[in-house]
Amino acid sequence: MQFLWGVGTGALQVEGSWRKDGKGSSVWDQFVHTAFRGADGTDVSSDSYTLLDKDLSALDFLGVTFYQFSISWSRLFPTGVVAAPNEKGLQYYNSLIDSLVYRKIDPMVTLYHWDLPLTLQEKYGGWKNESVIDIFNDYATFCFQTFGDRVKYWITMHNPYLVAWHGYGTGIHAPGEKGKITTVYSVGHNLIKAHAKVWHNYKTRFRPHQKGLVSIVLGSHWIEPNKSEDALDISKCQQSMERVLGWFAKPIYGDGDYPEELKNELSFLPSFTEDEKNYIKGTADFFAFSFGPNNFKPPNTLPKMGQNLSLNLREVLNWIKLEYNSPRILIAENGWFTDTEPSCRTRTQWKLQQNSCLFISYTAIKYDNIDVFGYTAWSLLDGFEWQHAYNIRRGLFYVDFRSEKKERIPKSSALYYKQIIRENGFFPKDSTPSLQAQFSCDFSWGITESVLKVGAGS
After folding, report:
1. 286 CB-near residues (< 8 Å, 6+ apart)
2. Which residue positions does the secretion signal occupy (predicted)?
3. pLDDT band of 453, cuts 50, 70, 90
4. Which of 54, 330, 432, 438 has its CB surrounded by the most CB atoms within 10 Å?
């Protein structure tokens, strides 16, 4: 398989039109209009729902080979329950996918990027209720049946850690519940089982003729010890990685069960039966990984605990390789952010950080023999950034949210990424001698989009 280059977005972040053409409300729509009093809601955004052609032009400009985006569950099924689909929503996603295929850009589709239909939250309690697992599977089945002839890469859900921890624990993400710690892990338990059910569904009913791949995006931080020779500091860092990334990765990519660290520490942690462990393990066709500066908000006490937060992508890729038997890895979300109106300094900072991440990816592939097969720059457009609303910008393209036309204006980062894609690697005039390198000739470039963002990941 050739190396893939892409860009991504989330539906709730960029589509806008949150009540247009029969779309139902999501938990984030309600959360924004209650908890974010005085802030612009998701109805402002980049208006991708009505300005699809401008998004497509931005993709053409970059020259990507895949686009990662999410489907708004409630735009297809306003109540979340699968019945007759909302025709306008169905038309939009068919048009988007057809337009990508026409341009020879692979669609990479996320089924759930945090925008749970509000009815499912109000009627069932959302992901606290196991009943939502089957409802999610029904929704996934419809998407596989409807779009699977053109979609070869599927993501079941984006960063479930954030859904559980910040949606049902800290309350800084929708649905905004500040629940008990037991609820957080119960929600995580249901999310894992929902993912596994959808993976098996696709494998059994659709893969034989559609030939696609299915995974789940997991996000994480990277923690390094204060003292590299201190065994206790090292142990604490390992425990931190297990509590965040291992919480979801070990059941799916490991033995089907939670890390021993979690089981020993949390007496109330839900347990999987032996049949469930066998059912869950191996339910991902590649390791989709989200990593960036705002992917995890650790406590300020880290140094006192013998730990330091680091953005060393190479090290965390090596950790994944060692922990989970050298999986094939897609860097499914990676990027930088600036303030609302980016200055020359912050634009330069983004470029340097992106250069660093790309080169680290290249180094990990060449020197560490890590099987990274694709890279997704996040994100295509400025949009609604979850709890940060419109106070930060992550797009390669600038959008004036208050303008009528909402033109997509390429930032220096877009020009930079475009050149990397065209050169298929790093170019001498913009690199130090040690950064002069080129990816293989069949390396592909793309972009991604998602429906919604949460706390420990985007």
Report:
1. 213, 215, 327, 328, 329, 330, 373
2. none
3. very low
4. 330
380 CB-near residues (< 8 Å, 6+ apart): 7, 8, 9, 14, 55, 58, 59, 67, 395, 396, 397, 447, 448, 449
Residue 200 CA to residue 342 CA, distance in Å, equals 44
pLDDT tens-digit readout, 117-137: 999 999 999 999 999 999 999
Which residue matches tokens 């209720």? 129
Instruction: Report the run of H or E that residue 123 belongs to, with start and end.
Output: helix 118-124
| Closest C-alpha among 49, 50, 13 to residue 32 | 13
Q: Per 3-state DSSP, what percentage of the chain is helix, strand, and coil (rounded to 5)?
A: 45, 15, 40
Nearest-angstrom CA–CA distance, 456 and 458 = 7
Q: For residues 396 and 445, is the Cβ–Cβ distance under 8 A?
A: no
Q: How far apart are CA 220 and CA 249, in angstroms?
A: 10
Read off the pLDDT band of 208 (50, 70, 90).
Answer: very high
Residue with tokens 């995006």: 217
Predicted confidence (pLDDT) per residue in 173-187, tens digit: 999 999 799 999 999
Angle of the 412-423 helix axis to the 344-367 helix axis, nearest 10: 30
Q: Which domains does the chain have, with CATH numbers?
A: 4-451 (3.20.20.80)
Burial of 280 (0-12, 13-18, 19+ CB in 10 A): buried
Higher pLDDT, 200 or 448: 200
Predicted confidence band of residue 336 (pLDDT cuts 50, 70, 90)? confident
